[in-house]
Automatic annotation (TrEMBL):
The keyword Signal applies. The keyword Signal applies. Keywords: Signal. It comes from the Bacteria. Residues 1-27 form the signal peptide. It comes from Pseudooceanicola marinus. This is Lipoprotein.
Length: 124
């Protein structure tokens, strides 16, 4: 029968407690830990991809309330578009139109306060 000394038991308990505490903090490292919605430039954005059912490669992404943060709205649109292309074509490559996440501010298209960007998925 094996017995552990009090110091070995205390050391093991401390180690288990440290591991438990460090793992419980992992969820706080993600920018959207309190929600499933990602945060862009400190803001939440609603983004939606529209496309024709027969031709999902060509799409338009609309990001609402772009005035909260233009940089954040651009990235929210990029994520929504990338997610769409991966879901339909298994690839994240996009050929963007004139209004795109990397365009100069003057080239961006806005409609009722929403940022509107378009592109085509380039899968396979």
């Amino acid at each position: 029968m094996m017995t552990l000394s009090a110091s070995k038991i205390a050391t093991r308990l401390a180690l288990v407690a440290c591991v438990g505490l460090s793992l419980s903090a992992c969820s706080r490292l993600t920018p959207w830990a309190s929600s499933n919605r990602p945060v862009f430039d400190g803001q939440y954005f609603r983004a939606k991809v529209a496309f024709e059912k027969e031709s999902p490669a060509a799409f338009t992404v609309t990001v609402r309330d772009a005035g909260k943060s233009l940089a954040g709205a651009r990235e929210a649109g990029r994520l929504e578009a990338t997610t769409h292309c991966i879901a339909y074509f298994g690839d994240s490559r996009i050929e963007w139109g004139a209004s795109n996440p990397d365009a100069e501010e003057g080239a961006l298209l806005f409609q009722d306060g929403s940022l509107v960007m378009s592109g085509t998925c380039r899968g396979w």
